[in-house]
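HOLO CASE FILE
Compound: zinc ion
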Amino acid sequence: MNEHVTLLFFRSSPSRISEDYVAAALQNFETFIFLIALRRYPSALAAIAAAIESALQASSIGQKPKDGLQTLLKRALSVSAAMSQWDDVRTTAFRDLRNQITHRGFSPRDDERSILEIMKTGIPLFFEVAKEFLEFDCREGLHTEYAEHLQVAVAAYEAACAEGSAGGTFWLQALGASVRWSLKDNFQSSWELMALEGADIHGDRYLMHQEARTEIEKGFEYPWDCRCPICLQDDAAVVELDGAALDGHQVVAVLFECINCGYASKLREQLLTKQLFRHQLTPIRESILKSYGLAT
Ligand SMILES: [Zn+2]
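Model generated. Tokens follow.
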């Protein structure tokens, strides 16, 4: 039993949080998020596999303490119709990679494979297991900004799968940057914070931001200012809109750069960028089209 469980990325917790394995499931998932922020993708895969195992060990599926992931999933399948999609075949690559990482170590060459298995199996399987056996909806329980980043990453990854182009290691990059940004203040010395305050008082920060904005806009054909999804600063993200989509009266972000946190996306990540700004751009579509003379 754990009487005083502390969670960092969750705003609510399962009702059984003090029971054995339940806290471990959520805390292993939090470790997974930290490792994503540190770009240790193979270790992140091992952490989310541990989160899945802990959640299954917390269930009532006739498990034994030494059961591994494969056995636990088989037991889960035998008692839950909701788990039927997670058969042995579907989880083989994820389990094999976890075993390889845990027992033999890893190299940067494993990064892409790890991220793709996390997107394909790790995240959806953990969410399913938490819902089914801990009666806990992770999308509801996570702090809003992290839940949104995961939702955006999954939507972008699924869109890429539908197009047959789901390669790359960037799917959780915005989530990682968001976590790193949230930790920034802990690593600033007092003189740095004072210098920032001085820059605000004298207007230096404003001027630097305006110069940065002008510089970024020069490189963009259809710029638009949005709230940055990483540092959450209003109007700090300069977004490049897709010209062909604008011609078709659609507003789609393809690139962005933030004048505040410095995050800059790349063209190959455009499916992720599209999802990151979809909820901001869609409601103001008419005003964007008007400002570019494409609507009256
Ligand atoms: Zn930013």
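CASE NOTES: The first strand starts at residue 223 and ends at 226. Residues 228, 230-231, 233, 236-237, 258, 260-261, 263 surround zinc ion (CB under 6 Å).
CLOSED: yes
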